[in-house]
Amino acid sequence: MAYANDLTLTQSHDPGQTSAVPVQLNRNLRRIIAWGNIWQVRFVPHKTQLLHVTRSSVPLSLDFNGRTMALQDEVEVLGGHL
Asked: Which residue intervals are annotated with compositional bias (Polar residues) in the record (predicted)?
């Protein structure tokens, strides 16, 4: 049996809300991990990708299951590159 297990999390915001974005995204990532723990779904942090598309110079630091996510120039989603 095979499962499609790709998940894409996006966040858009107004320019004045830039500082709230990491807080909101990290909160949502913790919720995803908690959901996975309840339903016995294990996420693989080293396969997790972060693409940050922004005009802001504020760096984005996200934590996924105890691991800081590294920024990527492109990400692969269901076999396609973005």
From this structure: 7-20
Question: How is the chain split into domains, by residue range?
Answer: 20-81
pLDDT in tens, 37-59: 999 888 877 778 888 888 777 77
pLDDT category of residue 2 using cuts at 50, 70 and 90: very low
pTM over 0.85: no
Q: Give the Cα separation of 37 and 33 in Å (integer).
A: 6
Please state, in angstroms and rounded to a whole number, the distance separating the CA atoms of residues 9 and 20. Answer: 16
Q: What is the pLDDT of residue 5?
A: 64
Cβ neighbors of 18 (< 8 A, separation 6 or more) are 56, 58
Report the C-alpha gap between 42 and 21 in whole angstroms: 25
Q: How far is CA 67 from CA 8, 18, 62, in A?
A: 18, 22, 8
